[in-house]
Amino acid sequence: MEGPLLSLRGVRKEFGSKVLAVDDVSLDVHAGETLGLVGESGCGKTTLTRLILRLTEASAGEIWFDGRELLGMRQRELLAVREDMQVVLQDPYASLNPRMRVGEIVAEPLVTHGRVPRGRRGRAPLRDRVAELLDAVGLEPGSQDRYPHEFSGGQRQRVGIARALALEPKLVICDEPVSALDVSIQAQIVNLMKRLQAERGLTYLFVSHDLSIMRQIATRVAVMNLGRVVELAETERLFTAPRHPYTHSLLSAAPVADPRVERTRRRIVLRGDPPAPSDPPPGCGFHTRCPAARDECAAVRPPLAEQDAPGHTAACLFPVRDAALLAT
Predict the structure, then answer these.
(1) Nearest CA among 263, 242, 256, 223 for reference residue 322
(2) Which pairing describes strands 19-29 and 6-15: parallel, antiparallel, or unpaired?
(3) β-strands 313-314, 228-234: how paired?
């Protein structure tokens, strides 16, 4: 069996001497899968993606991509690697240059990485390639002559996806790519990304706080809390048999479309506020809010340990099988 396309080992990021944003994260992302990364705001999801892309430098650890270690690379080497590692950003209004036409935006990676001939010889092939990319994401080829403000939010995000596909990457990092869109448009973009993955053999690292979106698109889901991965499992198993109390609380907070089911659910209400990354609690980072916490939780930092199925791990000394034990 081939190794993972992306592998993180002990990745850590400190801002200054006090704020620990990412704390000893180890993850593998395998070719062709979608690894979801979920957690509440401020848990370190976006910081982790920036570390992978080396937009922010890690304080410690190793990041391997396609057999190459990224943290020791010089910028020239990193530029070549980035052809295979692209990103779709959260805000389709802010991620596109308003002064550039859509065709120029999508073409920019091709020009930067020398994928087309320079000068007049490259104009026609470049325009044809941009038209192909726009068509692949459901936009009219002629739209490349328009500016971003002439498009809706969903259309702008399609432009961002086309730009990410321009270099035919192996990995696409999606940082909350649908959170700024209407619900109906979210479904369209998720279906588009699933289709493109099937057609092009893409691998996604998909960041979101929306569990319903995660359940639609992810192969496996990693749950982050206070800079750490606290649970990792195949998607359906995570939703049907979570083990970490924090995962139980996230699922409890997610609405259910069926009103009959919604009326019978018991909420898990967490006490207090989330700890600040600048002052994390000792032991388990969740113990100050956990309804099932015991004295040991304040003293021992639990490692990720396998639960009842291969590949299902949780960082909890006392894994919880029944959410009713946590509900009020």
Answers:
(1) 242
(2) antiparallel
(3) antiparallel
Chain segment 141-150, per-residue pLDDT in tens: 889 999 999 9
Q: Which residue, chain included where needed, has tokens 């279906």?
A: 191
For residue 119, count other CB atoms closer than 10 A to its CB: 7
Burial class of residue 26 in the structure, from the number of CB atoms within 10 Å of its CB (0-12 exposed, 13-18 middle, 19+ buried): middle
For the ranges 25-39, 46-60, 113-127, 231-245, which has the lowest average pLDDT? 113-127
Number of H helices, E strands in the chain: 10, 12
Residues 6+ apart with CB under 8 A from 282: 298, 299, 301
User: What pLDDT digit, counting tens, does each position of 128-179 carry?
Assistant: 999 999 999 999 988 999 999 999 999 999 999 999 999 999 999 999 999 8
Q: Which among 179, 140, 164 has a CA at the least distance from the CA of 88?
A: 164
Output the CA–CA distances (angstroms, integers) from residue 92 to 114, 133, 135, 149, 233, in the order listed: 26, 17, 18, 10, 30
User: Where in the chain does DSSP place strands (E)?
Assistant: 6-15, 19-29, 34-38, 60-65, 68-69, 85-88, 171-175, 203-208, 220-225, 228-234, 305-306, 313-314
Residue among 189, 195, 229 nearest 213 (CA):
189
Nearest to 89 by CA among 136, 50, 131: 50
> Would you give the DSSP letter of residue 73?
-
Which amino acid does the sequence have at 214? Answer: M
Radius of gyration of the chain (CA): 21
107 and 126 Cβ atoms separated by less than 8 Å: yes
Overall pTM > 0.85: yes
Q: Cα–Cα distance between 275 and 248 in angstroms, integer?
A: 18
